[in-house]
Design a protein that fits this description.
The complex is a heterodimer of chains A (about 850) and B (about 200). Chain A is mainly alpha-helical. Helix content of chain A is about 75%, strand content about 0%. The two termini of chain A are about 60 Å apart. Classes of the chains: A mainly alpha (about 850), B mainly alpha (about 200). Chain A: Its main location: membrane.
């Protein structure tokens, strides 16, 4: 009886719980409550063991079910990439919605579930916009701020006005029969149609790889003009309520003022909330477990507060995300940052999926469909034409002030990328039926525009982009050198962009940076974080973190963490290698002179299966072998060539949040660069001045440690062996993955040697000789140990720094003489030395 | 900092430089601002360390080579005209606004661009990319999990592909030829380096 009573207490509140779900569903619920609720009372005499209380859970249950269904839909759609390559996911989701809607319609004869403005604007949209703001490529965004604002504000107003006026003109001309729509209503309709939808745009543009400037222009525009549209919509809505006769110059001026107040007030509010979040994360040290929550809650509050003050909620949450990203990422624990990122993606993706599915479902409803060929077709035509005109005209103006103009093709794509989406639909549904007689016509037109742009333009976008850049001509197989060369060009371009300060470096930015450095960071960042904030250092830090993680993972794989506890062993392990190399060096150099010829032969024989000498003679017989090896080599290049940074950075992606590959590469490259700089710095230094100090590690001390660790090496070697590692595996891909550790040695050590060899020995020769010369100890170790010292080298300073202050050096330049270890890292990159010396990063 | 020089008057020989490199005044001005920004100690010349201070370059596998491409052999510093001349290689060709016909070969022609790339490989400047030189580049460009053996065989094969006269090295002509054989989609990228910039006005 107790539980029954509880249920009765809860169930009557029809009005409250349905506000979360779709009101249409709510109505349904309500009616069912009324009928079944009574019968529940009638049967309540005995003590039930189990009761079926569907109505008790109905609303949340349905919501959960819909989320599940939407998620499954996405899963099914993404299962096969052949389809999504042609048709954008958003279009497929809408189609899926059609089917679902059809099923619901078939069962109920009424569309029970539709996308309502409340649900859309309060529960689905905020997280998408917050996600966009939080992941906004800030530099690019603010670098192109001017253009984005012009497109977003002027472009949107232009779209709204031109569409409204043209439709009105056509109406007057008699193109669409008898409709009860006045000029103001047309303008209202125009304003709701003006929003280019970020959700739809990103979904499509993400699959079409356009350059990053174009991307940020379209993305930024679509994001901001949502805000602008809503503002515009509200202004016109107010005008419509006022009625045509009441509007005079004063009201119009008020409208314009309110437009700016709403837009900029919203942005400012977002900014304030962003600062608030940043400040808050400064002091969440002791509650790290819930600190990610603050971002979401405060972001949502920024949205709601703006809504409450009738400011632009969308702009507010965008700027909240944009402002806080830097500080919260610095302030919060790494784990919290990852949590925020992933949660953000989960929420945004989830709601995006829901939105598209429900956009589809909403269509299957007989009651909203009113057909007026003239109105619908003219709308489609006008939004297309005016979008093109607007973009081209604004770009023409912008190009006069832009250093690098926006190209013709880019303009075409920008214009064609004017997809309309759920924001327009949400606004259309919000129209007041009492004031606008043709509300249903507007809704159905909006739906058709949305379907047309998302599905048709979405599908044709990709072919259009490819078609406009026809240059690709015949796809011939690239030669290796070309492949390498292409990457070289990529890297060169990235470097030149860096050098020339690709994104304008100007007065305002300088001032802002200064202000930001001096005041904002001071106020908003934890003191500890501020110190270690620079980029170079943070990469180094992450490097260490990653090593530590994989280090532990490795230990777990072996079933014991014993080797980790043996701390000192590993630091010295690495030192031993350094020693071996420096010892080996003189030998090589001595041997080189007489073994020169022999060395070449050996190398050719054992390393290259197709020696160049024999190639000419045996070209025919080698042919087959060559081909397979060609494939392997190409494959290898494909997989391991570093990508130009450009391709990864500055990109916002809604659904993909994979940083791993990229980060790894960055770390690798960074590590190597630092090492080689270190080297060049040292060699320069060595030539000029004699070393000043002797390391704290005396030779003797070190040798002792080396001896002590000898056994560790072999035992680890065995451990790996036992785990079934096949060193002689010869298939290419396999080797690549398995020998991850082995390959590291050579490139890592090479730069150390180059400057030290006075004789002109081709490094590859030397390298090979080195390998073969040291076969017994090192190669075995290399092959057997995926966890070779070079991997641990990065970790080592981390630990070593507890004992001495020469950590960075010790670690990164194992092959150099001991006495150099006291020298500090190079000046070229100012950041690392001081922070490392402090050991402050521990 | 950069704005203190926001006038063409401060740039030495601005007119000649524009003639020579084909940069527009706006480009030149912006590059000058950038140059001043990079020139931390205000000497009017950049040292390799100044380049090294650019964060992004540390993450560029061949960043050091590119930096050294700015310095002519034996020189420790680079002044503004030379700086601009090097950058002029990367101006898109086809839009030569200010060039008159007096020069025989514009800096940003395809050949000159290729030459620049070629010199990134050819560190000893003997006009040939030897196997060792190629190997060095490869080593920098490929992930560290590629073994030395694999590097060797890649270098070997790459040389064989391009090497027409069988001297086991790639000359500039051979290099050029390889790049011309197949026009591929990626080539256009080398012509648009400075794109996403808004005017600093």
């Amino acid at each position: 009886m107790v539980s029954r009573g509880l249920a009765n207490e809860v169930t009557p509140d029809h009005g409250v719980d349905t506000s979360i779900s779709e009101p249409a569903a709510g109505n349904e619920t309500q009616s069912q409550h009324n009928t079944t609720g009574d019968s529940g009372h009638a049967g309540g005499h005995e003590v039930p063991i189990v009761t079926f209380k569907w109505h008790h859970v109905e609303t949340p249950y349905l919501i959960a079910l819909w989320i599940l269904v939407a998620g499954l839909a996405k899963m099914v759609i993404e299962a096969n990439h052949h389809v999504t390559n042609v048709i954008p996911e958003s279009a497929l989701l809408i189609c899926f919605g059609f089917i679902l809607g059809g099923m619901v319609w078939g069962a109920d004869k009424v569309q029970t579930f539709t996308l309502t403005p409340t649900v859309f604007f309060f529960y689905l949209l905020p997280q998408i916009i917050l996600d966009a703001g939080y992941f906004m490529p800030n530099k690019l965004f603010f670098g192109n701020m001017g253009a984005i604002l012009i497109y977003a504000i002027i472009g949107t107003c232009w779209n709204a006005a031109s569409l409204g006026l043209s439709l009105w003109g056509c109406h007057k001309g008699g193109a669409m029969g008898d409709l009860d729509i006045g000029l103001l209503q047309y303008l209202l309709f125009g304003s709701l149609m003006a929003a280019v939808d970020p959700v739809a745009v990103i979904a499509v543009f993400e699959q079409v790889h356009v350059n990053e400037v174009l991307f940020i222009l379209v993305f930024g525009e679509s994001l901001l003009n949502d805000g602008v549209t809503v503002v515009l919509f509200n202004v016109f809505d107010a005008f419509v309520s006022l009625g045509g006769s009441q509007i005079d110059a004063v009201e119009i001026i008020k409208g314009i003022i309110s437009f700016f107040v709403v837009a900029f007030g919203g942005s400012l509010l977002g900014f304030v909330f962003g600062l608030l979040v940043s400040l808050l994360t400064r002091c969440t040290k002791n509650i790290q477990i819930i600190e990610p929550g603050f971002i979401f809650v405060l972001g949502y509050l920024a949205y709601l507060t703006a809504e409450m003050l009738s400011l632009s909620a969308i702009l507010s949450i965008v700027f909240c995300g944009v402002c806080c990203q830097k500080y919260i990422n610095a302030n919060m624990d790494e784990k919290s940052v990852s949590t925020v990122r992933y949660t953000m993606k989960v929420l945004a993706n989830g709601s995006e999926t829901m939105i598209f599915v429900f956009l589809g479902i909403s269509a299957i409803d007989k009651t909203i469909w009113v057909w007026n060929t003239g109105f619908i077709l003219l709308t489609l035509l006008f939004i297309m034409v005016y979008r093109f005109i607007g973009v081209f005209f604004l770009t023409w103006i912008l190009n006069r002030y832009r250093l690098v103009p926006i190209g013709f093709i880019d303009q075409v794509i920008m214009s064609y990328g004017g997809l309309r989406g759920a924001v327009a639909y949400g606004l259309a549904v919000m129209l007041d039926e009492n004031k606008i007689k043709e509300k249903n016509l507007m809704i159905s037109t909006t739906l058709i525009v949305v379907y047309f742009t998302v599905i048709f333009q979405g599908i044709t976008m990709k072919p259009l982009v490819t078609w406009l850049k026809v240059k690709r001509a015949a796809v011939t197989e690239l030669t290796l050198i070309e492949k390498v060369q292409n990457k070289v060009f990529d890297h060169v371009l990235v470097a030149i962009e860096d050098i020339s300060g690709q994104i304008g470096h100007n007065y305002m930015r300088d001032k802002w940076n200064y202000f930001e450095e001096k005041w904002m960071s001071w106020a908003l960042m934890k003191p500890s974080v501020r110190k270690s904030r620079d980029h170079v250092f943070s990469v180094f830090h992450q490097l260490n973190l990653k090593d530590a993680m994989s280090y532990v993972a490795e230990g777990e794989r072996r079933g014991s963490l014993e080797f980790i506890r043996n701390e000192s062993a590993f630091i010295d392990f690495k030192k031993k290698f350094g020693d071996e190399f420096s010892e080996a060096m003189p030998d090589i150099m001595a041997n080189m002179s007489d073994d020169h010829g022999a060395a070449i032969l050996t190398i050719h024989a054992c390393i290259d299966p197709v020696p160049s000498v024999s190639l000419e003679m045996h070209e025919q017989t080698m042919k087959g072998m060559r081909e397979t090896e060609d494939i392997n080599t190409h494959h290898l290049l494909q997989q391991h060539l570093y990508k130009g940074r450009k391709q990864h950075r500055h990109r916002y992606s809604r659904s993909h949040f994979d940083v791993n590959k990229d980060e790894n590469e960055v770390q690798e490259i960074f590590q190597r660069t630092m090492r080689s700089r270190l080297e060049s710095f040292k060699s320069a230094k060595m030539g000029v001045a004699p070393p000043k100090t002797i390391s704290k590690y005396s030779k003797k001390d070190q040798q002792q440690k080396v001896r002590a660790t000898g056994c560790t090496i072999t035992s680890i070697g065995l451990g790996i062996d036992a785990s079934g590692y096949d060193a002689s595996g010869s298939t290419f891909p396999m080797r690549v993955t398995y020998r991850a550790g082995a390959g590291i040695e050579n490139p890592a050590f090479m730069p150390d040697m180059d400057p030290m060899t006075p004789i002109q020995i081709p490094p590859w020769l030397m390298e090979a000789e080195l390998d073969s010369g040291m076969v017994a100890p090192s190669q075995r170790a290399q092959v057997r140990l995926p966890w070779t010292p070079s991997n641990l080298r990065r970790l080592a300073p981390f630990r070593a720094s507890a004992q001495s202050n020469d950590s960075f050096m010790l670690a990164d330049a194992p092959a150099t003489q001991q006495r150099d270890d006291e020298e500090l890292p190079p000046p070229p990159s100012p950041p690392p030395p001081p922070s490392n010396r402090d050991g402050g990063y521990m | 900092m950069g704005s203190s020089s926001s006038s063409m008057d401060h740039i030495p020989n601005a007119e000649e430089l524009m003639q020579e490199t084909g940069f527009s005044a706006a480009h030149l001005l912006r590059l000058y601002e950038r140059f001043e920004f990079l020139d931390k100690d205000q000497t009017g010349e950049l040292r390799p360390e100044d380049f090294g201070a650019i964060g992004g370059l540390a993450l560029n596998p061949i960043g050091d080579r590119i930096i050294s491409a700015f310095f002519s052999p034996g020189q420790e510093t680079v002044d503004f005209p030379s700086f601009v001349r090097v950058l002029a290689h990367f101006r898109p060709n086809g839009t030569n606004r200010t060039r008159n016909g007096t020069q025989q070969e514009p800096v940003n022609s395809r050949t000159r661009k290729l030459k620049f790339a070629f010199q990134l490989y050819d560190q000893d400047r003997d006009g040939k990319i030897s196997r060792a030189e190629l190997l060095q580049v490869l080593r920098a460009m490929l992930g560290i999990q590629v073994t030395e053996e694999q590097l060797q065989s890649i270098a070997e094969r790459a040389i064989q592909e391009a090497d027409l006269d069988r001297d086991d090295a790639i000359s500039f002509d051979e290099f050029k030829k390889v790049q011309q054989v197949s026009p591929h989609p990626q080539t256009p990228t080398k012509e648009t380096p400075l794109h996403p910039t808004e005017g600093g006005r």
